[in-house]
Design a protein that fits this description.
Blueprint: E1 2-4, H1 10-23, H2 32-36, H3 40-49, E2 51-57, E3 60-69, E4 75-82, H4 91-101, E5 109-114, H5 119-127, E6 131-132, E7 146-151
Parallel strand pairs: 4-5
Antiparallel strand pairs: 1-2, 2-3, 3-4, 5-7, 6-7
Length: 154
């Protein structure tokens, strides 16, 4: 089941975020210890201001994906994670489709950041119509090395 997370999911989302950072620190620009130091209230604020979706199985979150308006006022996909036992089942695609459909149609394109070393994620994003963007590297966050974009209405 795919659903949008709300403020009431703050503690659970924090736990999932820490799980993903512990399992794959190389894939995210945030550091586990920094996120662990943040109170649950900061996750409630995040969930109130962003659009984050979760895939659930037997009451447990097995994947997340969401978007927010970045500092350049562009919709940016982030918080993408699929639990190891749920990979290869199309969950990333379902989450990405739910996320993309929630972005207002007034936006022409959507972006995301990914590590070039995360080949599995890059393949999923390419299948979904994203392609590497080399002309706007100024949009990359510290610690990220690949920007990918696609038309919102692809």
């Amino acid at each position: 089941m795919i659903r949008q997370l709300g403020v009431r999911d703050a503690a659970t989302f924090r736990t999932v975020r820490l799980e993903m950072l512990a399992a794959h620190p190389e894939s995210f620009w945030e550091k586990h210890d920094d996120v662990a130091a943040r109170p649950v209230a900061s996750f409630a604020t995040l969930l109130a201001n962003a659009h984050i979706f979760a895939a659930e199985q037997e009451g447990r979150i097995i994947g997340t994906c969401g978007w927010y308006r970045n500092a350049h006022d562009l919709p940016e996909i982030t918080w993408v994670y699929i639990a190891p036992e749920a990979r290869g089942q199309g969950i990333a695609t379902e989450l990405m489709q739910a996320t993309l459909s929630s972005i207002p149609e007034s936006h022409a394109e959507v972006m995301l950041q990914v590590s070039k070393n995360n080949a599995a994620a890059v393949r999923v994003y390419e299948r979904l119509g994203f392609s590497p963007e080399t002309d706007r590297r100024d949009l990359l966050a510290s610690g990220c090395d690949m920007l990918m974009v696609r038309p919102l209405h692809a």
